[in-house]
Amino acid sequence: MQTELIAEARRQAEICNACRYCEGFCAVFPEMHADGTFSDGDITHLANLCHNCRGCYYACQYTAPHEFDLNLPKALAEVRHASWEDYAWPQPLARAFQTNGVALAIALVLTTAALFLAIFALPGDGDGFYAALSHGAMVAIFAPAFLLPLLALAISVRRFWQDMGGGTPGWSGAFGSTARMTNLAGGHGEGCNYEDEDRYTQARRMAHQCVMYGFLLCFLSTSSGTVLHYVFDAPAPYPFWSLPKLLGVPGGLLMVFGTVWLADLKRKSDRHLGHAAAWGGEMAFIGLLFLVAATGLLLYWLGATALMIPLLALHLGAVLTLFLLTPYTKMAHGAYRLAALLKHHQS
Amino acid sequence: MSEHFDIAVIGGGNAALCAAMTAAEAGARVIILEAAPKPYRGGNSRHTRNFRCMHRGPLGPLIESYEEDEYLADLLKVTGGKTDEGLARMVIRTSEECLPWMEAHGVRFQPSLSGTLSLARTNAFFLGGGKALVNAYYRTAAKLGVEVRYEAKVTHLAFDDDKVAEITYETGNQTHHITPKAVVVAAGGFQADLDWLARAWGPAAKNFLIRGTPYNRGEVLADLMDQGIEQVGDPTQCHAVAIDGRAPKFDGGIVTRLDCVPFSIVVNKNGDRFYDEGEDVWPKRYAIWGRLVANEPDQVGFAIIDSKAINLFMPSVFPPIKADTLDELAAKMDLPADQLRATVDGFNAACGETDGFMPTELDGVATSGLTPPKTNWARPIDTPPFYGYSLRTGVTFTYLGLKVDDRAQCSIGNRPVQNLWAAGETMAGSILGQGYLAGFGMTIGTVFGRIAGREAAAHAN
Ligand SMILES: Cc1cc2nc3c(=O)[nH]c(=O)nc-3n(C[C@H](O)[C@H](O)[C@H](O)COP(=O)(O)OP(=O)(O)OC[C@H]3O[C@@H](n4cnc5c(N)ncnc54)[C@H](O)[C@@H]3O)c2cc1C
Ligand code: SF4
Ligand code: SF4
Known about the structure:
The complex is a heterodimer. The relative contact order of chain A is 0.15. Chain A folds into 2 domains: about 80 residues, no CATH class; about 260 residues, Fumarate Reductase Cytochrome B subunit, CATH 1.20.950. By secondary structure, chain A is an all-alpha fold. Chain A contains 14 helices and no strands. In chain B, helix 1 packs parallel to helix 4, helix 1 runs parallel beside helix 10 and helix 3 crosses helix 10. Chain B is about 25% helix and about 20% strand. In chain B, strands 6-2-1-10-20-19 form a 6-stranded mixed β-sheet, covered by helices on one side. In chain B, strands 11, 13, 14, 15, 16 and 17 form a 6-stranded mixed β-sheet that branches. Chain B has a 3-stranded antiparallel β-sheet with strand order 3-5-4. In chain B, strand 19 and strand 20 form a beta hairpin. The two termini of chain B are about 25 Å apart. By secondary structure, chain B is of the alpha/beta class. Chains A and B meet through helix 1 and helix 4 of A and helix 4 of B. The site of flavin-adenine dinucleotide has 44 residues of chain B, from helix 1, strand 3, strand 7, helix 6 and helix 10.
């Protein structure tokens, strides 16, 4: 772990610990004030509890030009990103994709091209998309592309857990607060100081929820398709009044809407209150989520036209990129954040 | 440049903002002249954490009740009776309606901070502290059409008999004049002007640290007093507490507080003790120690503790100086080693039974036969590593101010000035002659800021 980043976050945490004015904003401060000592693992834990709402920056009487130079959202964002890179395996992949939007775009081009190749090289075996790429081929590509990165992520998060001190996770408290995104409310229920300096707004919380629930709906849609396929012997394509479509269409719409909103908010926010160098990588990641959702919806709409094949290649390429790079992009933050909350709610 | 404002508010802290918002809500065109640049706007108010609020039942974050008589009794205890009881009761009674008013103007509260549970009933804590409060008020003021000018230092108010005729203010090296119909002064005290402080207190004051803003230099106070506006409060006195000697000269704020004294011995730069460190619990003594340290050579003290005591108090922002022997500690702190050892040995020998040691209450664990004695928490300093902190005098505010009536109006001779009101620290001496009650500064500013805004707007209309 980059020691200067940890040292800077620790310096700031010690000032906060003597001040405590921000205690009500989020889980970071009560965690910080619990015992007042800051091991490297403690700092990484705090960093992953922070969701960069910036409330504590605009409220701080010690921000630059004051000599104490507080900027806790930034210090924690830098440690947080460094921790994702450090725990990721293999590390160089994380270094490339966390911060670098171009790398992400190249990955997307490669996966999409690979899927084009697959579509032309492998025979289809059914209706709809399966006419282009057989169900068997899809499973052969996506099952490992889904499971292997999950395994890599699980190993990383386990190491993070151990560095935080291990122990039995506080399941109920953590899931309760994640489901409601309590911490994104800012302690008073009025949200973040994100896109308009010190004005509290709910925009970021709502946009994030659109993306998260949209993603979950799409994921459930795919899962329901798998169940229909294997258990009920009902392969795709599905009509509108079917579980995969009823989950997938609203899910896709939520994701499209949420990612556009998030990108706009991010554009308006002050980069220097986050990890400025990761801005491009994060924007590219939002773009990838948008692409996954938008191409999915377009496929539904234009699936019967000649555009189906390129759309299918692009959609599957985007999904494949998202899956493969889960441990190495912002996608991993959910797992780290959940682990940090599980630790926070431990006792 | 000619600009037309109904009301000019001088200052940009809590009292100024309360006055500006109230006046704007009454329909007045208001301008705020704030000496500080935007990142430092809000004076000492940006360093605060709570205000003291009367309540007859649970209110917002406040539990149980805190009624007028108890509040007043708490105030009289710390001011030694130097209180204008009429004004004090008015402030206390009005504080109850302030809390919902503050919420309506954007302030958010949080439960009492960890380490301050003793204040959960009496003081309402601002979520994010005073800077968050100030930010919220600037947002609300902007919505109400209040204009704000930063780096605008008021230097002079010109009078026409018993009326303010014109205000002069400077931005950079430009001078501006405005002629509002009414004026509210809320520019704090003069503690950041060290020369003035030295004239009032003595040359020792040059070594004091100023806990809050460097922009409260009392220019307006001096200008008004020179022109015969009634003043109040002891011109030589300031509220000063003992803080970490390594704090910055200005704006160190809350994090420089040092709570270790009751568990320590405190020596001066010659290595000698000079006062009973265990006289009372720290919240009741930290102001006395500001003065005690001010009277020692070079205005500095050194608190010495051992490893038994290191976890008994809230951390300061600066880590203690640490050493395995007293000689090494003396060298690191630039103290005479022989004398420090002699003082510690003498103190240790005077300590008696320590089984009754109780860090959270007056435990009566005292020295015997020692001058000065330590009357509580007296345990030998004998378990290395040893730790040391330097202590200096940190000034919170000055007592000298403008005398106002219960409508916040200033006077000249024995007549009211027709269009001049004052609020906050700059008139707090009208109520509070000495001492200080935690959270009362923001209460005075909020109550009188609102009154001043209302009265000024009524005059301007
Ligand atoms: C570290 C610290 C902590 C404190 N904590 C608390 C607390 O928790 N609760 C509490 O009740 N009190 C607290 N106090 C006291 C409290 O800060 C004051 O009572 C209160 O802030 C006074 O408000 P005010 O608006 O009168 O003055 P300030 O907030 O100091 O505002 C004065 C304003 O006037 C401006 N100004 C000065 N001169 C000029 C000029 N010539 N022209 C134009 N503008 C000028 C300044 O820039 C400033 O904006 C604390 C004080 C300090 C130093
Ligand atoms: S961010 Fe600033 S105001 Fe908030 S707790 Fe830390 S030092 Fe205090
Ligand atoms: S940025 Fe927000 S979430 Fe992060 S520490 Fe500050 S207040 Fe908490």
